[in-house]
Structures are given as structure tokens and as C-alpha cells.
Write a structure and sequence with these properties.
By secondary structure, this protein is α/β, with parallel strands linked by helices. Helix content is about 35%, strand content about 20%. Helix 9 packs parallel to helix 14 and helix 12 packs across helix 14. It binds ligand BES, manganese (II) ion and zinc ion (ZN).
Length: about 500
């Protein structure tokens, strides 16, 4: 869906549908009044008749003489309106036109005067939400020929001041779509080689990009034994994907994002139970998030230098698979005792994080569907941020608040570190039941001593359930973070 900005009022709009927001006080703003004229006062009539009351997420479709659909959207009490309310209302409105012939929309939600938000913020949030709601997975499913689902464009009602926000929203929406598309693909399509090919096509499509791919031969030479151990059970060759974007002077230190790219996680020899194992196709959502973030940044040509690193590996049981009890020497030289082959994310990330530091990053952030414990701790609402730094996690959390893509911090205090000490190596790859997300973060922290690093566990936020699929989170938070960095 193309997202643009426009100042055409309802009179002038040629769109198939118009989104008109109404608060529960029932008062119409100038835009709604104009729409009311087009509807021969049907809005006033319906509100008077209590057919529509402006309650949150209430919608009503009316038809103008022109044949245009006017979608009334309730936003509830202005004093209680949050960014979440705006997201939900926009989602409802898009769903109201989803299985209709509507292709183009004028979205007038940003014309409302909100208590807490300026119209540029509302426009941004609503645009991202609209694109999200308009998405449908289509790759491996046959649709009927007459199923003409899908909006093609949305014009946000926004002035010049908001236009930049709309551009950012459009880039974020493209990024989110990229992430969802990759995340939702089945694991027999989306394997390490497929991810490498996607990186190649991104490098071709956008200016100022370059790509390096390390294959197993190269990684063997470099002694990335921890990553390679995980991939040993798979017929699919492991890859390390390194995609660079140079939007600032070459001398400016890069932001480096590392994404866990386990294209399928069976658990390996420590095999997972069968129920819901299919969901482990989403175990590359950290990778998908950095792909999406990268695309958004390249789309905006942000004035920063960005490097995305994706260790892409499949975790399978096999006669040659790594086993519990194995001790491997990581790329850093530190040794790891494998106590559970299902704690494979940290095994590939540690080598990728060590490698990432060769680029002398000003900021290093990894994103990973790392622990089931994270879902227990924060549910599906917030991503977990962990860091030994003061400022970096705050900056990430604040970016999340700006775009309503929430995160919450968990501590990485030294007291937790002893849970991964062992007699037989420098560390073991599991820390036991207590604080499972934190001890996973502790493991990674041992490879990130002298760098401005944060870890984000997205196990609870990257996908929803079987029906909804990949959410594209936390692309919005990450892109907003980088936008903020670019104007620092
Ligand atoms: N990919 C999983 C984490 C996961 C599980 C995310 C379920 C979302 C839902 C990860 O590789 C894993 O298996 N982690 C183990 C770690 C344990 C063995 C210490 C886990 O969380 O059970
Ligand atoms: Mn696992
Ligand atoms: Zn995993």
C-alpha cells in the first residue's frame, strides 16, 4: 500500500473511501462537517438516532451520492485517547473496507484535535497501522480470481509539517511488510540460502548498499565454531549475511544490528516437543526484523551508516548434529559447554556479535526470538531490552513509546552471571529455569565487553498466533530509534 500526504478535503477527494474520525462527544470537526454535507446530513442523523456514538473502535459505513464510502470511526473519549486507540480505530476502518472493491482511501483521522498528540504523530501512527491492517499473506495460498482484496494507496490528511512523518511512516510500513513477509514464509522456502538471496536483492535495489556473505568454508577458516556447531545437523548450509548501508561519511562509526536467523528450530538433539513446533519457523524473526529495519533506513536514505549481520542457520537433529556435553571454542576464543542444543540462538549470536565488533560500531544491538521465558515474563505486549549501558536501553525504550511499539527493560546484573559458570568451559549455554531471559542475555554479554551493546528478546512480540502470523515488531521501534540517532 502506497502512503502519501494530501490536503484535499472530503469535497475534493477522489478516493474510493474516506476515513472520518469522531469522538464520543459526537461533535463533528470541519472535515467531518464537510463529509456530512456530502452525505446529506446522514452523519448528524445517525448520531442523533444513536446509530453511531463514537465509542472506541466503532465503525459505520455510509455512501455518498458519488458512490464513495465514508467510514465513520469511533475514537471514544478524547481525554482517554492513546496511540493504541488510534491504531485500533485505524485497523477497524481498514477491516471495514477490506473485502470490498475499495482500493484508495483518504484518511482524515489526523484532522482531529487530540488532547495529547499533534497531528503529525497521529498521521504517522495511523498510517503505519493502516498498512499493517491491509497486509495479507499470499505466497503459498491460492485465492479465487475475483478475490480483489487489498488497498493500493492511502492519502493521509496532513500538512507540510507532517509530510516528513508520513515519509517515515511509509518507510516503516515497507520495513514491517518486509519483516512479516520473511517471517511468515515456511521453513522449506525460507532457509539460510533464501535469506542470503533476499539480502542480495536488497543490496541491488537500494543505493549505497554492499553485501558480503560468509559461507561455511569461510566461517570454518575464521573458526566460528559455535555458530557452525548449530548448523552441523542441517543439510542447509549456514551463512553469515553482512549487508552494509553507507548513508553518512565513511569515517562515521556504524550502527550494527545483529538478527537471530534460525530458519527452523527443532531443538536439535535436545528435541522440542511436537506441539506447535511449526511455530519455530518464526525463529528467524530477529533476522527478519533487521532486514525490515535495513530496508526502511535504505528507503529513507537516512544519514547514518548501518550494518546488518544475520547468522542464518537451521537447528536440526542428525547423526552429525552437535550434542549436549560438547564443548566448542567460539570465534572469540571463549569456550562453551553445550548443555542443551535447544539454546542454539545464543550459540550463533555470540559468534556474530564478536564478528560485528570488528566494524567498530558506535552502537551494537542484537534482536532475537531467544527465550520462551521472555514470553512468560512480558507476554505478547513488550519486547525485552537488556544492556549494561545506561543510555542505550533508555533510547530504545523511548523510541518504542514514540511509535507505540513497546519494550521493557530487564536487568543484566552480575549476580545472574554465576548461573552460566561451569567446571568444564568458560561458560555453559543454559542458566536454568530462574531468570531464563536474563541468563541468556548474560551469556551474550560475555561477548560484548567493551562495546555500546543492547540485546532485545522478541520471543513474545515477533509473532502472534497461527492466524495472525508475524507482526513485524519491533521494526517500528528500531527504525524510530535510528531516525532519532540520525538527527542527534
Ligand atoms: N527459539 C527458542 C525460544 C522460543 C521458544 C521463542 C518458544 C518463542 C517461543 C530458543 O531457541 C529456545 O529454544 N530457547 C530455550 C532455551 C532453553 C533451552 C534454555 C527455551 O526458551 O526453552
Ligand atoms: Mn531453541
Ligand atoms: Zn531458537
Amino acid at each position: 500500500m502506497k502512503i502519501t500526504s494530501s490536503l484535499l478535503t472530503p469535497n475534493k477527494s477522489k478516493a474510493n473511501a474516506l476515513f472520518i474520525g469522531v469522538f464520543s462527544d459526537g461533535k463533528l470537526n470541519t472535515i467531518a462537517k464537510e463529509a456530512d454535507q456530502l452525505l446529506n446530513k446522514q452523519i448528524t442523523v445517525r448520531i442523533k438516532a444513536k446509530d453511531f456514538s463514537g465509542k472506541t473502535a466503532e465503525t459505520l459505513t455510509l455512501f455518498a451520492d458519488s458512490g464513495q464510502r465514508i467510514i465513520l470511526i469511533g475514537l471514544g473519549d478524547n481525554n482517554k485517547c492513546t496511540l493504541g486507540t488510534i491504531q485500533d480505530a485505524t485497523t477497524k476502518a481498514v477491516k471495514a473496507v477490506a473485502s470490498t472493491p475499495v482500493k484508495t482511501v483518504s484518511n482524515y483521522i489526523p484532522s482531529l484535535a487530540f488532547m495529547d498528540f499533534d497531528s503529525a504523530t497521529v498521521a504517522k501512527i495511523s498510517a503505519i497501522a493502516a498498512s499493517h491492517a491491509a497486509y495479507r499473506y499470499e505466497v503459498t495460498k491460492n485465492f479465487k480470481k475475483d478475490d480483489k482484496y487489498g488497498l493500493t494507496s492511502m492519502a493521509m490528511y496532513a500538512d507540510k509539517k507532517a509530510a516528513n512523518n508520513i515519509k517515515q511512516a511509509a518507510a516503516i510500513a515497507t520495513g514491517v511488510e518486509t519483516t512479516r513477509a520473511l517471517g511468515n514464509l515456511p521453513p522449506n522456502i525460507c532457509n539460510p540460502d533464501y535469506l542470503a538471496k533476499q539480502a542480495r536483492s536488497i543490496a541491488k535495489k537500494y543505493d549505497n548498499c554492499s553485501l558480503t556473505i560468509l559461507d561455511e568454508k569461510k566461517m570454518t577458516k575464521l573458526k566460528m565454531n559455535s555458530l557452525l556447531a548449530v548448523g552441523r545437523g542441517s543439510r542447509n548450509e549456514s551463512k553469515m549475511i553482512v549487508l552494509k548501508y553507507t548513508g553518512a561519511k565513511k569515517t562515521q562509526k556504524p550502527h550494527v544490528l545483529v538478527g537471530k536467523g534460525i530458519t527452523f528450530d527443532t531443538g536439535g538433539i535436545s528435541l522440542k516437543p511436537g506441539a506447535n513446533m511449526d511455530e519455530m519457523k518464526y525463529d528467524m524473526c530477529g533476522a527478519a526484523t533487521v532486514f525490515g529495519t535495513f530496508v526502511a533506513v535504505a528507503e529513507m536514505q537516512l544519514p547514518i551508516n548501518l550494518i546488518m549481520i544475520v547468522p542464518a542457520v537451521e537447528n536440526m537433529p542428525d547423526g552429525d548434529a552437535y550434542r549436549p556435553g560438547d564443548v566448542v571454542t567460539s570465534y572469540s576464543g571463549k569456550t562453551i559447554e553445550v548443555l542443551n542444543t535447544d539454546a542454539e540462538g545464543r550459540m550463533i549470536l555470540c559468534d556474530a556479535l564478536t564478528y560485528a565488533q570488528e566494524y567498530k560500531p558506535q552502537v551494537l544491538i542484537d534482536l532475537a526470538t531467544l527465550t520462551g521465558a521472555c514470553v512468560v515474563a512480558l507476554g505478547h505486549v513488550a519486547s525485552a531490552v537488556m544492556s549494561k549501558q545506561e543510555q542505550l536501553p533508555q533510547d530504545i525504550l523511548n523510541a518504542g513509546i514514540q511509535v507505540n511499539d513497546k519494550a521493557w527493560q530487564l536487568p543484566l546484573w552480575d549476580e545472574y552471571q554465576k548461573q552460566i559458570d561451569t567446571t568444564f568451559a568458560d561458560m555453559q549455554n543454559v542458566g536454568g529455569f530462574a531468570g531464563g531471559s536474563i541468563t541468556a542475555g548474560c551469556f551474550l554479554s560475555r561477548f560484548c565487553d567493551d562495546v555500546n551493546w543492547a540485546h532485545i528478546d522478541i520471543a513474545g512480540t515477533a509473532w502472534n498466533n497461527k492466524k495472525e502470523g508475524a507482526t513485524g515488531r519491533p521494526v517500528a521501534m528500531m527504525v524510530q530509534y535510528l531516525i532519532n540517532e540520525s538527527v542527534k
